[in-house]
Amino acid sequence: MLGLNKKDTSLFLIVVGMTMFAPFILNPFPETSQLAQFNAGYPDLMQRFVIFGIFAIGFNLLFGLTGYLSFGHAAFLGVGSYAGVWMMKLLTMDVIPAIFMSMVVAGLFSILVGYVSLRRSGIYFSILTLAFAQMSFSLAYSVLTPITNGETGLQLALDDPRILGVSQVDGSIPPASIFGIAMRDSWDLTLGGWSFTFNAGYYLCAVIMILAFYVSVRIFRSPFGLMLKAVKSNQQRMNYTGLNSKPYTFAAFVISGMYAGLAGGLMVAMDPLAGAERMQWTASGEVVLMTILGGAGTLFGPVLGAGFIKYFENIFSKINDNILYQWFSGLPESVADALVFVIHPFIGKGWHLTLGIVFMLVVIFLPGGIMEGLRRISAFVKKRFSSSPSSNGAVPSAKAAE
Amino acid sequence: MVGLMDAIFLQILNGLDKGSAYALIALGLTLIFGTLGVVNFAHGALFMLGAFCAVTLNGILSLSYTTIDPSRTDFLGKPLKVQTPYVEAWFGPEIGATIIQWSVPLSILFAIPIMVAVGLIMERGLIKHFYKRPHADQILVTFGLAIVLQEIIKYFFGANPIPTPAPPAFAGSFDFGAWLGFAPGSIIYPYWRLVYFAFAIGIIGVVFAFLRYTTFGMVVRAGMADRETVGFLGINIDRRFTIMFAIAAVVAGLAGVMYAPINSPNYHMGMDFLVLSFVVVVVGGMGSLAGAVLAGFLLGILESFASMAQVVALLPGINQIIIYLVAIIVLLTRPRGLMGRKGVMED
Amino acid sequence: MEILKVEGVNKSFGGLKALNEVNLSIEEGNVHAIIGPNGAGKSTLLNCFVGKLTPDTGSVTFMGKNLIGIKPHEINQAGVSRVFQTPEIFSDLSILDNVIIPTLASNDGSFSFNAWNGVQKRGEILDKAESILEDIGLAEKKDVLAASLSRGDKRRLELAMCLVQDPKLVLLDEPTAGMSRADTNNTIDLLKRIGERGITKIVIEHDMHVVFSLANKVSVLAQGTVIAEGKPEDIKGDPRVQEAYLGGAHI
Question: Within an 8 Å CB–CB cutoff, is residue B332 touching chain A?
């Protein structure tokens, strides 16, 4: 279907299903239940899931396929955000030009950065991308203030021209919209104790993520994608095989930069402001974490990784001692005290610590990330429950890795 | 009127303290890279741990007990509560106060065993398993470790910078202007920064002398040049490399201890310095110890020149990006850095 | 007809003269062995043919096309494939992918942005890749990761990766180094079968057994210079060769 083989088609349908029904899937607990705080089905967070999913899918096209580890990808996201806000200031509050322009500008910027950085490989490439990103970050704070509005961040204003739209409506800035549907429009559905929110902005992001995912599957299975894997595997052999590895890597870099720009544009479409902190190297580090955690070089891993980290950041960080005491209310007080004491550093504001530890464990024991973990579990289950033990497991198969 | 000569001189001085920190961190990074072949993204965290050794010792020495002095009252008329540090009680008020004031230099003694322990645990417990893994994996796992270490420090010390004063003996500034025959007051430079510079030079000298004149150092240098051959000679090179890792950790830690009075330590100072130190290492030439030191000082001074008012007026924002700009130019024109050897990290 | 012409090639590393006025002429369809003691400059010479090294002076012409200063991928596109001393393959890809990549390279050129249609849609590429795997006997393992192959199989795979490109000239750098006698014989058989395709081959070899079972012309390199050239039988008896090679002992 859609030019995909059977396995990819089913994966694609799973992704479509999960994103379309996310408001249900992410809200499994009734409103009144104690566990309702683990519900992630509110628009703001769901938007972030899919936007960072796009960012990670794009990053994976570079790192997962070619092995080039960029530590400056947030710069493209940031540049895309600025371009998006400017479109909303100058042209219209319709998000299409903003998103389009984000991709174009990020693409152009990645052509510049990629052209220079890709003249080196390995750690030198990582340092070069890092240097470019830090430069962009510093400049956005200082010299480029007329474009970026420095520390305050670039925002919309009532007197923006918006030549294709209107500057203001009844004394306020018109909402970001697509074909007249405001991004913030939501429709609530209450079923018994459950409440679900369907948000226009989320569904726009979700559809775009599905498209982005589809494109990435096509690239993975194409001759071009195979060449990118060859870059990672053995560049010397590639060159002696009559292939010029440079344009391949460069194209992957630019495509991946445009994905980052797209993510930046969508962020702006959901919330029309842009700040330099989006370009800082820690932000670049975050997308690295997402991709590795989910499984670099796999199709779906990066999306999972992005979801995992964003869920942690928003939900896990809200757990505090009181909530822990509620959970442990059945236990004797001293035991509960001890448990809370032990768990305390890892929750709430300490979620970064947990993330760091989880990340380290993944790199050490599970280099293939969550996807590798799922594969091992399913292999284990199959082995355990299949009546005739097959010899398939003995031969490392190339297909299994994807 | 500040003349050109003294302005230049001032900028060189200003660049020295940051340059010293860059040079010390870059030196350790290069030692680890050259010996173990590991790209250590947690090295900045070691620098930060050192700074917090100073914070901790300062805190321990200032531990006090409370007594009530009935002869004095506070503003509410109640008897005054007096905080007396234990050290003052034990050693007498004067010696005790001096010990507290000198907590930062004293922290050097405190930090050395801690950093050795941290270094050994890190190498044996984690890094060891990554010798044969790709550089990307090494970067990632040490990056994770850096996050963990900085979050632990944040948990115990909070997110705000903690002022850690230098001994009052070094509180003032030295008037280079008067000393060198320029106008008095034209070039003043805090004493502690001079101390830091001298300290950095001392550490660098000790490390170089150690590598140059001891048998241990000779084996390590031979191992850096050709690990396999040295292994064939029946020398246990791995154990020596472990010790080198600990030494690199101590160098970074001491750089952090002494830096505490210059910039109040905070939990993310390691990351801030790490990014720049990596740039320094790459500019100096991956694997070259002398290159790392040279590039550290050069970039520190260059950064300070770029922040001169005249330069910023000419090229706005240049002070923010100069180091990165230099790194990009060096990497493109001299891929091996200023003093790099052939074949290091060229895959 | 002459397919590769090497004229007056010199190459020095520091003070060491690795190649000294090397002249060679390779006839089309020949299996041309280059032999010589260790350090004679055999691998250096090969590296000058594929763009890995640039000679200090001299010229290398392949079918009238100058090869000096040209990038490795352009040389391959001109029709020169190389098998390395230690197998250079795409270890973390499947065996089939390992063969598809060179097939695509000779079909689509050194760069083509086919990012949309799947590899599976390219029937002609797949057929060609699978048939070469049949030829070398790796067809059953086509979905296995290349890294898991034995050393001998890796070599055969690398050979397949070269042959699938239908090259005009194949350079083989010690194709049997480190192999058992049985594996060596298998490889000789394989190379002989390839010989039937009429591809010109340059073989660097230590093993005289291999040289004499394959080559129909031999050049002897010693200290960077060609000291003798001719049919294998003639070379065998040439006293200069025995002198240079074995210090006078019989081959």
Answer: yes
